[in-house]
Amino acid sequence: MMGYQFMGYVRPDGQVGARNHVAVIPSVTCAGDVCSAIVRQVAGTVGYFHHQGCCQLPPDLDRVTETLISLGKSPNVAAALVVSLGCEGTDHEKLVEEIRKTGKPVRIIRIQEMGGVSAAIKEGIDAASELVMEVSDLQRQPVDISRVTMAIKCGASDTTSGMASNCVIGYVADKLVDLGATVVFGETTEFIGGEHLLARRGVDPSVGEKVYEIVNKMETRAKSLGCDMRRGQPTPGNIEGGLSSIEEKSLGAIVKSGTRPIQGVLEYPEAIGDRKGLWIKDTPGREPEILTGMAATGAQFMMFSTGRGAPQGFPTMPVLKVCGNPNTYERMRHDMDVNAGRIITGEKTIEEVGEEAFEAILALLSGRMTKNETLGYHSSIDIYTLGPVI
Amino acid sequence: MAELKIALKVHNKDNVATIFDNGVYDGAEVEVRDKRGKSEVVKVRGLVPYGHKIAVRDIAQGELIIKYGEEIGIATRDIRKGDYVHVHNLDSMRGRGDWKEEGK
Q1: Closest approach of chain B CAs to the CA of A224, in angstroms?
Q2: What is the per-residue pLDDT across A144-163, written as a single tens digit (0 to 9) for each?
Q3: Is B13 touching A (CB cutoff 8 A)?
Q4: Is the CB of residue B73 less than 8 Å away from at least one CB of chain A?
């Protein structure tokens, strides 16, 4: 098969970035305001404004620490500034140590130790500014497409999603897997009703068993309040768009995973490393949590299918929007990158739009911004935790 | 006479088809097409919005509703061919915390 290259930033640990951001990482939600002051002031920085990191059960605190480590290590991040309050439940020292292992520049500021908010903002601005200067002249170089990890998701779906935009993503997913790259999909809630089809595609029986296990856990959680999950999933928008049940939504959603074998299931905070092929990550369907989980995987970009028009993005992971509904595409053309609505109207085939999308991806990886990036609509970030806030 | 609006049937086993068109009114006739290009004209009962489904055969209460060749729910009442199919006559069978056990 023909090879494809893109222009990427080769990191000290061998990973390849499609962007060159300095990430400002609050180790706890209470450091968020200091981070936002720094990000507002210093060009080239982005913030991970999550709402976790304290007064949670230990497994959740570990999960938050691990997720933040994976975000810091992700290849689109060139350098990181960790902002700690000082008394939080996450392990901010480990956060710094682990990100530093990639060889990227990392700094930390501590709000309580530095004498409060204004002092921390001043220190943080100076530190971030130095980090930006340090990485700002890194150069892109040609790399093979097999170094890429694509995350996929669908959001604000309607019945066009399963028949057009998800089919386009499935086409691209198969193509990338065949080229030796990595593809990760999630949204465990949207396996409900289609899990038997996914389980059959596991490379060995243990993968199928794991698929049933994560779906079971998710469904048990959903049922624990003793009500019909409908309106939570499918959402009112999904229902208005013609999706009648979670089963119908799921069957349309899993189309985007393509047809290749499933190698295994990743835990939410886990980074993909150098594993290739098609993988599942155990995530919910809601945007902030899945976008964060997928960026933590180390995906350089996400392909995101929508029917009703979902505008969300992520600070360090460009999101390419593929719209299946021709009416929505016309209404929201400034948010939608690829028009898969032409499949519904019969103007184009899945393969034709799939090839167009693939070209758009090569451009994106080499630096071309998505509509979502230019709009800076990327505050949809949060970490998926399991237990209560205490 | 104007061209008939199309309803798409994804899989042979499906007992519903999806209409990607606006202005399908009660009593309108649509052409149900399957993947092999076979088609049949069906009279629609009810107002069917863009992207919503109709039954392509009679479905008895308690019978499974099939799309993509897989079950997407259960009929909560008798559904006639051409009827609008959605949350008013289709029940999800999953994530039902309100059911004592799965499947009822």
Answers
A1: 6
A2: 999 999 999 999 999 999 99
A3: no
A4: yes
- The span from the CA of A175 to the CA of A165, in Å, is 16
Structural fold of domain B5-91: 2.30.130
Q: ipTM greater than 0.90, yes or no?
A: yes
Whole-model pTM?
0.94
Query: Residues A281-339: pLDDT tens digits?
Result: 999 999 999 999 999 999 999 999 999 999 999 999 999 999 999 999 999 999 999 99
Write out the two tokens for A79: 């350098």
Residue A234 distance to chain B (closest CA, Å): 10
| Residue from the list A241, A246, A251 with its beta carbon closest to the beta carbon of B67 | A251
Flag if B86 and A229 touch (Cβ within 8 Å).
Answer: no
Distance CA A297, CA A280 (A): 11
Which chain B residues have a beta carbon less than 8 Å from that of A191? none
Any B CB within 8 A of A213 CB: no
A197 and B70: CB-CB below 8 Å?
A: yes
> pLDDT tens across A210-234, in order?
999 999 998 898 888 888 888 888 9
DSSP designation for A35: H
Closest CA to A177 of A149, A210, A208: A149
Determine the distance in angstroms separating the CA of A347 from the nearest CA of chain B, rounded to an integer.
14
> Which three-class secondary structure string do you get for B28-87?
CEEEEECCCCCEEEEECECCECCCEEEECCCECCCCEEEECCEEEEEECCCECCCEEECC
Q: How many CB pairs under 8 A join A and B?
A: 97
Give the start-to-end residue ranges of the domains of chain B: 5-91
Check pLDDT > 50 for residue B22: yes
